[in-house]
Amino acid sequence: MPMISSVKMCFATISLIAAGMTAPVWAQDAAKDMTAETVVATVNGTDITLGHMIALRDSLPEQYLSLDDKVLFDGVLEQLIQQTALAEEREEALTARDKLMIEVDRRAYLSGAVLNQIAQSAISEDAVKEAYDAKYASVEPSREYHAAHILVKTEDEAKAIHEAIVGGADFAEQAKEHSLDGSSASGGDLGWFPLGAMVEPFANAVAALKADEVSAPVETQFGWHIVKLFEDRLAEAPKIEDVREEIEGEVRAAAVEGHVAALMEDIKVERLVDGVDPAILRSNEILKD
Question: With helix as H, strand as E and coil as C, how does the chain read?
Fold first, then answer.
């Protein structure tokens, strides 16, 4: 039968490519003739096409896409065969819930396809550069600080440790011995941070210090801190290539939000929910046939 020959030919081509071999001329020619409508299997007379397979393949999670071509091909085809058989079984007795969910799923897919198209078409070099400039290049550089701290529960503990440091004790050693913070293993070192990343009493204490100075005990909701400032600097804007993924995500999000906002202004919506008890959403009785 022509159908069996078509399936065998497709499998042979995929197998040879996966094995690193050159497919024979007849297989190469057959592959050129294939389209989205090429039938690769039937289930009780229902066609499964190459288009169905490619569409399903494109929806798979990333980890499946690295599979060997033949393994992936066989797996996708088998899944479609099983889905088709199960769907046929259900179609003979569709419930009200089934019909509604098919409609809901269709709307969800189509709306997702629109948003995906909007998001992808929004990306261009000019759009990325404009968004980067707005976020980084046109903004005054901010100051960031490199500091360490020791965190304890009580003011008395903090005062005693502060006195020991003023008297010559090593800050890092005191942090390792007494601090409750996870940074204690590295001598309390917090690395570089902007003041906005810290709670206000702590940030104010940092801002008041000069390089190598140690603060008096300062209280926050986390406990009592003793802070040491190593140095501060003006933070340089990141290079565009270092934040390209982040910027592209923001460009896509802005395009989607803008499209949805404009669409909502143009459509006619009538909300016919006056007098409807929101609790009705929990009633499954409505969906019973």
Answer: CHHHHHHHHHHHHHHHHHCCCCCCHHHHHHHHHCCCCCEEEEECCEEEEHHHHHHHHHCCCHHHHHCCHHHHHHHHHHHHHHHHHHHHHHHCCCCHHHHHHHHHHHHHHHHHHHHHHHHHHCCCHHHHHHHHHHHHHCCCCCEEEEEEEEEECCHHHHHHHHHHHHCCCCHHHHHHHHCCCHHHHHCCEEEEEEHHHCCHHHHHHHHCCCCCCECCCEEECCEEEEEEEEEEEECCCCCHHHCHHHHHHHHHHHHHHHHHHHHHHHCCCCCCCCCCCHHHHHCCHHHCC
Query: Which residues have a Cβ under 8 Å from the Cβ of 13 and sit 6 or more positions away?
Result: 23, 27, 28, 30, 31
Are 262 and 71 spatial neighbours (Cβ–Cβ below 8 Å)? no
For 203-255, what is each residue's pLDDT tens digit? 999 999 999 999 999 999 999 999 999 999 998 888 999 999 999 999 999 99
Residue 37's CB is within 10 A of a number of other CB atoms, namely: 9
Predicted local confidence at residue 138, as pLDDT: 77
Going from the N-terminus, what domains does the chain have, and what CATH number goes with each? 2-93 (no CATH), 96-139+240-289 (no CATH), 142-234 (3.10.50.40)
Q: How confident is the model at residue 140 (pLDDT cuts 50, 70, 90)?
A: confident
- Looking up tokens 């980890």, which residue turns up? 63
